[in-house]
Amino acid sequence: NVARAAAFMLFAQVEPGHACPISMSHAAVPTLRLAPELARQWLPRLFSRNYDGGLGGGGKSSALLGMAMTEKQGGSDVRANLMQAHPVLAQRGSSASEGREYLLTGHKWFCSAPMSDAFLVLAQIQTQTQTRVRTQARAEGVEGGSGQALSCFLVPRVLPDGTRNVFRIQRLKDKLGNRSNASSEVEFDRTVGMLVGEPGRGVAAIIEMVARTRLDCVLGTAAGMRQATAEALWHVRHRRAFGSLLIDQPAMTAVVADLALESEAATATALRLARANDDDGGQEVAFRRIATAVAKYWICKRGPQHAYEALECLGGNGYTEDFPLAMRYREQPVMAVWEGSGNIIALDVLRAIARDRPSVDAFEAEVGLAAGADRAFDAHWARTRKQLDAVSRSEPAAAAAQARMLTENLALALQASLLLRHSPSPVAEAFIAARLGPERGIQYGALPAGLDFAAILERH
Question: What is the spatial distance between Cα 202 and Cα 417, in angstroms, rounded to a whole number?
């Protein structure tokens, strides 16, 4: 996962549009493994190093997977989904002999990467005639409504006999950014889908995919920060104005040093999360449960402002399409919006705190590895732990009102801890002074005096 993260952050700087289908195809693997027969058919295609852009049938050697979860009436509230799934009667000797083939009918407001070969889709199974499904769904508390069980399905574009599955693209989204990667609205009309996981356990089946795509949102934002920092630094190191290079003018030096600090903190956090995904047991699993949400919230929200400040370093050129930072500025918000916007992620942090104490313990253990290294860090971590304890004992409404502030403080504590342990002292000290210290500013470049800008910029 660390090696993949490094590669992901490199190619996402070149062309971020194709990061989405690559991310979903990667993240779909653990979900598909919940359906062994489907995994045998599809995983070899996902693992293939070949690329086949056609919509072939069973003979295609490689594949990309997309996803279609949200609907217009619910958005992130997927349990409000209305798409219906009706079972196909099993036929002797057919792939549906275990009752896993369904016909899906309904509309999806956002279908990512509609050129993909198959999609993971959430739909409601009508359970009035399926007592076992209804009972299980109620026991798990995951019903979409009365007599419904929200479930996960794999929907192929082409059926095994070579015919096209019903997949009607109503329109492509006219997006702010990420325009080189299509998103669409689609209509299903008795579209064939294969059940993945257990009926009524759709959210549980797809949650691992969501966790991995959230990690890729962090990786993609960190990639954008690195590109923006590199472009800004190249410009200020070669542009003369008012008698000297911009890099040598103190006001500009502070701005690009601050951009570099943000980029390094995001990169360190992203790679630490990737390492946590290389361990399938123990404390690392608990750590990534809450740390992925914390990092996704903070880093992805920092991305657009970081891109803008880098764009401004180029002056008027930065605002034109002849230079890459206008595109990067439009690109960064998608990572914050996709796979849960700010409130969804912050509330997910609260759920982890309330329901998964081992994840909190693992997070505290990770951050605490830097205890004693810096007084400002220690003071921030003590305040954050006190806030964490207070929020965990609060009523739900009061806790929700503090969710964003708590998540921000947790994120800054994690980033500061990582930089204290893994970056040179000038970087860690500057980051803590700029983000946690009493003289911290709001805008990039509003830094306390006495920081070693030269050492920071030499690394970038």
Answer: 36
And the tokens for 369?
């590895």
Angle at 22 between CA 27 and CA 103, to 5 degrees: 65
Per-residue pLDDT tens digits for 340-352: 899 999 999 999 9
DSSP assignment of 346-393 equals HHHHHHHHHH-HHHHHHHHHHHGGGTTS-HHHHHHHHHHHHHHHHHHT
How far is the C-alpha of 187 from the C-alpha of 111, rounded, in Å?
10
Of the chain, the percentage scoring pLDDT greater than 70 comes to: 93
Q: Has this prediction a pTM greater than 0.90? A: yes
**Where is average pLDDT lowest: 54-63, 93-102, 207-216?**
93-102
Contacts within 8 Å (CB) and 24+ apart, 328-331: 328/16, 328/224, 328/227, 328/228, 328/231, 329/177, 329/304, 330/176, 330/177, 330/178, 330/179, 331/16, 331/177, 331/178, 331/224, 331/307
**Contacts of residue 243, Cβ cutoff 8 Å, sequence gap at least 6:** none
